[in-house]
Amino acid sequence: MEVLETRNNQDTLKVKLDDRELFIHSSYNPEREAQQILKKELTEDFNSDSHVVFFGLGLGYHVSQFTKQYQQNSYSIIEPSLEIFNVTSDLIQLEDVFNKNVVHLFVGEMYSITQMVNQIYKESTTKIEIVILPTYKQLFSKLLSEFLSESKNKIRQHRSMLATNYRFQFNWIENSIKNHKRVINTPNILDDDFKRIFKDKPVMIVSAGPSLSDDIESLRYIKENCLGYIFSVGSAINTLVEYNILPDAVFSFDPGEKNHLVFEKMINNNMDSIPLVFGSSVGYQLLDNYRGPKYHFITSQDYTSRLLLGDQVNVDELILDSPSIAVMTFQIVNKLGMSPVIFAGQNLGYLYNRRYAKGVEYNFIDSELTEQEVSRAEDVKDVYGNNIKTTMSFNMMRKSLELFAEHFKGEYYNTTKGGADIKGIPFKTIEKIIKEHLRKSIDKKTWPSNLASYDLSKQEEKKKELLLSYESYIEGKSRLEYTFDKIKNETGKKKLEKLFTKIDDELTRFEKNDFFKQFIVQVIRVEHDLLIQKINKTAKKEDTLDKKKDIVQMFKHYLDILQKASNKLVEVAKKEAII
């Protein structure tokens, strides 16, 4: 690496790479080149809310140009070479490159690509733009390719998470309130009595993937000879009913309004002897419709049970909300001590151009894939090492299973022929599983049905505390609205600054209120997170009237959503006698 003077008396860097010599910046006019880089790299959608990631600092010409031209925007810098950074530190005024808007600086190999991407995209709701120093495309091609790939995946995951939160944020709370009466009147599947029943017993977690049809007769053999428990998850119940195989239990947690339709065939055929194990935030319609025995587990989305049952809800026994019921059931059977845990029908990819196994047909979603769905699919390795098509949601399920397999470290197998390979859950055909691991019958004991899982002596006291918290929330909401109205009508800069501080303090107090914290904010979590991010960004602005404009706009939208959410939630809470 060599520092050279350009024709217009600026510095540039020349780097020798193998037999080539590359200039990090123009050897003629680095500053003009910096302007051209920004013009080329920043998209048409770039605006004052965009966060810019600079891949390559070099001598900082393009970053310095950016900080002068876009004084409102936040940015981060990745400089893969410690040597280049050291030279830069000696040559330039760092104040020209790093101002109050810089969020992250990554130098050398202190962080992995995954760590950098996670830091940059953490809880970000603003648009992120990537500006690449041209020479770095050659110097660090492999690193750059990995960064762009990880960034793409992170953006897709973030959008999926936002979409899930936005879609279900009211359902989770509404269901947990409406289901509370059933939670306190049904046994918790993770009670010690159940751990004694299930410990060290083999279990098949049966999903509705297209390969399930290939394992049906083997599952029938397992069932008829009591070789292990068969737990049906999600839509698999329809295939099992189609082939007249009754599982030992069905598991469900989907908070959606159509979830009960998954079990329509079972309910309509009066198959009410099968235990239903439900997540406490499951769509309440299923519990209204199913007449058979019910058992529950408390999910991480159920704030009602955690508030009203207090320390009776063991945090270690909470089942973390996951991309699929198979993943949540995997958590449960591990906590019950069941072994080995065997998956069937867990394709996590497409087979025979089908979404589900035979016997799973709905009028609200096709079991057959469209050409467009197949064309949009991603490639992933199957259990034989071949490429199969999958989706982002299937990939998230697979990665979740891999994380829990690594966490629990039990004995696991995957019998899904042609399914996606799941790290930590090796493939073995169901025929081999029966021959090698399910050689003797097990004693399937009767499940306790009238087990009292909770002491309800303090339930009414908890509800009174919640009512007081609700009344305090109403008062805090009124103060927030009053201060907002004063900000709207105030023009004096000094008074506005005091009002900004006041509304910020009131929002902080608001966030400490139990009713708001455990219920309201969970219903508007996407909008609330967005508000906090916008407040933090607006606080950096120096012009008071500009701040006022932003605050009025953001709080008007937020208070409207807050009012609508409060009305809906309070109506449900009062109807269910929670407050």
List strands and helices in order, with pairings.
Elements: E1 2-5, E2 11-17, E3 20-23, H1 30-41, E4 51-55, H2 61-69, E5 75-79, H3 82-91, E6 102-107, H4 113-121, E7 128-132, H5 136-139, H6 141-178, H7 180-183, H8 192-198, E8 203-206, H9 212-224, E9 229-233, H10 236-242, E10 249-252, H11 264-268, E11 276-279, H12 284-289, E12 294-297, H13 303-308, H14 325-336, E13 341-344, H15 371-376, E14 378-381, E15 387-390, H16 392-408, E16 412-414, H17 430-437, H18 459-489, H19 493-512, H20 514-523, H21 525-538, H22 544-575
Parallel strand pairs: 4-5, 4-7, 5-6, 8-9, 8-13, 9-10, 10-11, 11-12, 13-16
Antiparallel strand pairs: 1-2, 2-3, 14-15
Helix pairs in contact: 1-2, 4-6, 6-22, 14-16, 18-19, 18-22, 19-22, 21-22
Pfam families: Maf_flag10_N, MptE-like
InterPro entries: Maf_N (IPR045376), MptE-like (IPR002826)
Protein name: Motility accessory factor
Describe the structure.
The chain is built from 22 helices and 16 strands. It has 579 residues and is of the alpha/beta class. It folds into 3 domains: 2-158, Rossmann fold (3-Layer(aba) Sandwich), CATH 3.40.50; 179-437, no CATH class; 457-575. Strand 2 and strand 3 form a beta hairpin. Helix 4 (113-121) packs across helix 6, helix 14 packs parallel to helix 16 and helix 19 (493-512) runs parallel beside helix 22 (544-575). Residues 34-99 form the Glycosyltransferase Maf N-terminal domain. This is Motility accessory factor.
